[in-house]
Amino acid sequence: MLPRRVLSGFSTIISALVIVLALPAVTSCTPTERGKVVARVNGQTITAGQLLDELRKRRGGPTLVDMIDAELIELAAREAGIEVSDEEMQLRWQRAVAEAGSETDTRAILEQRGISEAEYRESLRIDLLLDKLVTATVQVPEQEVADFYREHQEDYALGERVKARMILLGSEEDARSLADALKEPGADFAGLATALSIDPATRENGGDMGWIERDDYARAITDAAFAMSEGELSAPIQVPDGWVLLKLEGREGAGHRPLEAVREEVQARIVRMKMPAAREEWVRRARSEAAVTISDDGLQEATMELLKHAPPPERPSLLPVALPQ
Length: 325
Known about the structure:
The protein contains 13 helices and ten strands. By secondary structure, it is α+β, with helices and mostly antiparallel strands. It folds into two domains: 4-141 and 260-309, Orthogonal Bundle (Triger factor/SurA peptide-binding fold); 160-253, Chitinase A, domain 3 (Roll).
């Protein structure tokens, strides 16, 4: 269901909307233009008029439906104040390029399909608008979130974890000297880490590594950390970048990330699952609400039938396509 605010604004537009769709190139050609020969086959001619009539019969209806859908999406987004930012467009374009393989492959596929980059970017923009319109309609009740989390709890599993700090030094001699100093009463591991550690990732935070699992760091470091007791200091540990000293600050057994920590992630997964059906519902409702007038009698019946039964617009995709050799 569309939210009342969005539905009200959308209905206001489409109830007054008359989409007048004609094909001037087909219906408004002069006799001379229609009679122009575009091909000869063993002496027999094919005229521009014959070609355009055939194109109208074969592709006129589906093409008009695509145009109607795009117009309905554009109008609804405008009424709802929904826009696509440059950053969103760039991200969607980068995904398309990644799907194709490279910029070169993207251009080759578009050329093969007879589509310009500008045209494909416009199809991506319309698809983004539809996603935004539909997302606003998808409701995710709290009980559904809780049920999904319970059914997929293993997706949010945590292994055994420890919380530690580290100091990275350049030589074994420096590491052993500092290890002795850290055994003195009142020694400040975090302060010494900030002052002496050469590890850029943890130095500014007093060597804080946060909560880590066994695969988060080099095996030499995690093997030592998971063997330590809370509050214990390690002996110097050799690693590829130098020598490490550790201090263990906490330990947790295996468990699961709590629902409160993953609520937004769970909601986003549910929305993604609902999107295909929600997109179809939105498009079918938009079509049924719209007032559509088609001036070409030859297209009227076929197009109106397609508007009732045609699937919603497919997501733009550059695959699967065989690249030209």
